[in-house]
Amino acid sequence: MPSITEPLWRAVRRAGGLGAALRRVTDVLRSEGARGLLRRLQRTVRQEARYEDWIARFDDRPEDDRAAMDALLLALRERPLFSIIMPVFETPAALLEAAVSSVRSQIYPHWELCVCDDGSSSPRIAAFLDSLSREEPRIKWTRLTRNQNISAASNASLTLATGDWIIPLDHDDLLRPHALLEVALAAEANPYARLIYSDEDKIDASGTKRFDAHFKPDWSPDLLRSFNYVSHLAALKREDVLRVGGWTLGMEGAQDHDLYLKVTETLDRRQILHIPKILYHWRVAENSTAGSDAAKPYAVAAMASAIASHLERTGREGDVTLLDDAPVARVRYRLPERAPLATIIIPNKNMAALIRACITSIRSKTTYPHYEILIVDNGSTDYETLRLYDEFKRQGIVIADYPAEFNYSAMNNLGIREARGEVLVFLNNDTSVIGEDWLSELVVNAIRPEVGCVGAKLYFDDDTIQHAGVFVGVCGIACHPYRGFDKGDFGYFGRLRVTQNLSAVTAACLAVKRTIALEVGGFDEIALKIALNDVDFCLKVHAAGYYNVWTPFAELYHFESKTRGYEIGPEKRARFQRESEILNERWQQYVTLDPYYSPHLTRTNEAVTIRTE
């Protein structure tokens, strides 16, 4: 295991130097306190140790498996030409030579390297490129007479390209030897693919230390509207890059992010493919965006501009804001002039104090202008509760009776039938609103045409995380990632702080259009009466072609299982086991591999760390 000083000094370099690192520490102290800072430092050390272990145990070894990879190459029926786009400016000789060498070392031979020198002052670069192009006919180069910017240089490189696919490569980064072969294999197996991206990690300036592995989810458009998670390696169809006009001038620092947004605007999820393998090493050098967005402040502003332009092009009305303590974006979608009616559906039995507190928090803190509350009562007998219901009715709250044995799915389905709202919000009675715009955030996402279920960020009463989405097939049948983490924690690659797509969210607070709930048949009140019915519901919605969304900007407390208790005792455990088996059989594909959870992350706990088992 590395000492704490080694990864900390790398963290300082990644942050853009000591000054930027100190500012980052101040931000963390402000948002998470000393405990949060210590936890982050410890996690950095542990994560690096886990990644070193992962490399030793699970990483591809193309050098050792060359015969097998040659066999895969020979078996390819289609052999597309990859045009690698490399803008160059004042690149140190050793780094440029290493980047070019990583291309020339590719197992897959059908490539061309298209280089543009963006007006470097040193004649050494031009001489090196000229010598290379004479030695290797697959290398082409051009030169801008004056330094312009990375977008202009990328577009100049693009004019040299003749390949089927375009692959951006920074002038100091490295491709793995099997990178292009893996893309060719993926393209052949998925002939409709038009954007293919892989996992990546970082290497230090010397090129000897690998760290900060980014094991990515499959296609998540909402995550791409939060930050450039696609990043590297990315292969795009050349005709698509040309169709959108290549790289946009003025987006420097976020030029690739902008390109990915433009290209994917006309693609569907089947045309965007993720290869869950590390195929790209992003070098951390002084003032590179790999080190930190703090090293190039304009990159964060460019990211916001790229996302705003994307919203405008696609007709999505919204504003882009940047988080104060992280280089990620939030899209604040705008509600229509006529806000749709939202029906908040709350199952309940007795528990007068609990349901009163829940309703009071909704009515006192919700700024959304158009909602109704519908309580589905499961045969309450408590005098205080019945008296409270009379009070609620006078306030316009609807009480729907469900007198049969407790069946969470059936109670929610009754709510669906009785609701008048265009948007349904399923809410547990043991919740309490935190932020006043919670309902606005849920509704404005739920009414997006492509969106199915929308989930919130829920906390225990000690301000630790109770729910940040659901990963299927982790910790058994399904789990809540980051359970017990502090409220301000960033999570794996910032995913606790950004809107993103997931396979499932909890129905403790879940919004969905009523039409979609009816389309998928509501909740399963026959086989999944008590548990896992929300996961099943979400997976039905996802399988129907909708994107499920989790947003950290709708926040509530969830005093979990205060109504019915936890799933303990032999009878409850046996029922949960039966329901788990049903979900496993019904959704085996998701249980085996949740598209939003990398196979390289642990499946044995909720911490979202690199697997070592």
TrEMBL record:
Record keyword Plastid present: no
Limits of the Glycosyltransferase 2-like domain: 83-195, 343-463
Taxonomy, superkingdom: Bacteria
Protein name as annotated: Glycosyltransferase, GT2 family
Pfam families with a match to the protein in the record: Glycos_transf_2
Keywords linked to the UniProt accession: Transferase
PANTHER family (alphabetical): RHAMNOSYLTRANSFERASE WBBL
GO MF, any single term: transferase activity
